[in-house]
Specification:
Length: 508
């Protein structure tokens, strides 16, 4: 589905018609495969490292993973902004704006990831000390990160390209981008770690090659297949950055909350020794793979909600949110069942014993159900970010990472390492439930603003001030680059869904 003009205008956005549950299943399913592939890279690394039988090395991978989590969260936050703004622009039929913003987004992603990735290299030692890493474990973690942090731009460009592909509904190709990178890791890891005897260094080299593949395939899909990139216009970069920043800024802050909470949990667990850290690291890498469908919802639901918002179909926005929650509940139930039945296999596969085995068993049996509530938070975040209320996403995520993590994990630490994980799960569940309730109330309020009969009545409502109020503008569209909301397309500008031209939402 290239963004190309046809005789009848711009090709219609695909999510503004058809079964919403089907769209959710297809986007989340294909997105999950790609996302699982990304996180499987870390899980595969840890699996092969665990075969070395060295608890310090496995713990080093755990500490390095926390630092890498900060980097990945930054990139994910930026891609949320990219997908939201480009999807709204596509939904409103503004193909040239979509191309320009797509180009600007890749430039901004590359610039920011270079600064953050290389800048981290100067602070690795104090950062690892702050997390609780000491001795040989700290030395190994620093050596691994000193190789991987400089390739953050490759990860960012690959993830941004995948988000751009999702924004035009090409879930299959978006999945292929990350799946290919995971395949490279799965092949190279045993060769480098065991075949060449490089150990942890081999895992680092494998991660670098994997990110190269991620960026290359992603750019090919964006540049060649969909021709989504326009000419880079430096004079419009600041305006595009502001439009992206209204969503990406809060989304980055939102996503950084999770690694902040994870860092505190890692620090709390570290006092119980390398075995506890190794067990927690296994859980951290197992979780996004087991619950990949749930994690994928944030990225998959976003374009669906955003395109319908851009087209003025507010009731479909509410229905999309409802179907997403239904999909999440079924996904968590299945994942919990698989984990509970397969925990023995997992413990043996990762050579876990003692406290590490105890933590893995606790998670698979009793803590996995907390993802019913964590999944509610993921779905809510997607709605907040794409319906013009990104600050709510920021507030709930930071609330969960601070008030929902620190006091609960601290209280749990008095009962050992298992208590830390139990406390974290309880606090996270509370904030997930609250976020889901707020998201549904906002969607219901939005749906009430859609007139029952035709676009003409919706246009009259909008003129009367009934259009939804957004915290964030959609995209700069005027010749002067104001960061204004997408105006209703002029006749002939867009082939709208349903009976007439697509209505649009106005920002303040």
């Amino acid at each position: 589905m290239p963004i190309t003009e046809t005789a009848g205008g711009v090709e219609r956005a695909r999510f503004v018609s058809g079964s919403l549950l089907r769209h959710v299943c297809v986007m989340a399913g294909t997105g999950a495969i790609g996302l699982i592939a990304v996180f499987a890279v870390d899980l595969i690394n840890l699996f092969y490292i665990s075969l070395l039988g060295e608890k310090e090395t496995a713990a080093a991978v755990g500490f390095a993973g926390v630092v890498g989590f900060f980097h990945a969260s930054l990139c994910i936050g930026l891609t949320i902004g990219i997908a939201a703004v480009v999807s709204r622009t596509v939904g409103a039929g503004r193909s040239e704006d979509a191309r320009r913003i797509a180009t600007s987004s890749l430039v901004l992603m590359a610039a920011l990831s270079v600064v953050v990735g290389t800048g981290t290299a100067f602070f690795l030692h104090p950062a690892l000390q702050l997390l609780g890493a000491t001795g040989e474990t700290a030395r190994l973690a620093q050596r691994y990160l000193s190789v991987t942090v400089h390739t953050l731009p490759l990860l960012g460009i690959g993830m941004a390209s995948s988000a751009l592909l999702r924004s035009v509904g090409d879930a299959r190709r978006s999945m292929t981008v990350t799946l290919a990178a995971a395949f490279v890791t799965a092949v190279l890891d045993p060769i480098l770690i065991f075949g060449f005897g490089l150990g942890l260094d081999g895992a680092a080299i494998s991660a670098v090659v994997s990110r190269l593949v991620l960026a290359a395939i992603g750019l090919h899909g964006v540049l060649v297949t969909h021709r989504m990139l326009g000419r880079f216009d430096a004079s419009r970069l600041a305006d595009d950055a502001r439009a992206l920043g209204t969503v990406a800024g809060p989304a980055v802050l939102t996503n950084l909350a999770t690694p902040v909470g994870a860092a505190f949990v890692t620090h709390a667990v570290a006092q119980f020794g390398p075995s506890a850290v190794a067990g927690a690291a296994t859980i951290d890498r197992l979780t996004p793979v087991a619950f990949g469908l749930v994690y994928a919802l944030s990225g998959a639901v976003g374009p669906i909600l955003a395109q319908n918002l851009g087209a003025g179909q507010y009731r479909r926005v509410q229905e999309g949110l409802r179907d997403s929650l239904l999909f999440m509940v079924v996904s968590v139930a299945v994942a919990w069942l698989v984990l509970a039945l397969g925990q023995g296999v997992l413990i043996r596969a990762f050579s876990a014993d003692g406290l590490a085995a105890q933590l893995i068993s606790l998670f698979c049996s009793w803590l996995a159900p907390s993802f019913f509530f964590a999944g509610g938070l993921f779905v809510a975040n997607a709605s907040f970010n794409n319906l013009g209320h990104p600050l709510l996403s920021t507030a709930f995520n930071w609330g969960r990472a601070t008030m929902g993590t620190i006091p609960f994990a601290w209280w749990g630490s008095h009962y050992g390492a298992p208590g830390v994980l139990i406390g974290q799960a309880v606090g996270s569940s509370i904030f997930g439930l609250l976020a889901a309730v707020v998201a549904f109330r906002l969607a219901a309020k939005l749906a009430r603003q859609q007139a029952p009969d035709g676009v003409a009545e919706r246009g009259a409502d909008a003129a009367a001030g009934a259009a939804p109020v957004l915290d964030a503008p959609v995209a700069p569209t005027s010749a002067h680059g104001e960061a204004a909301a997408l105006a209703t397309p002029q006749p002939g500008d867009v082939t709208g869904p349903g009976p007439g031209p697509a209505a649009s939402a106005a920002a303040p």
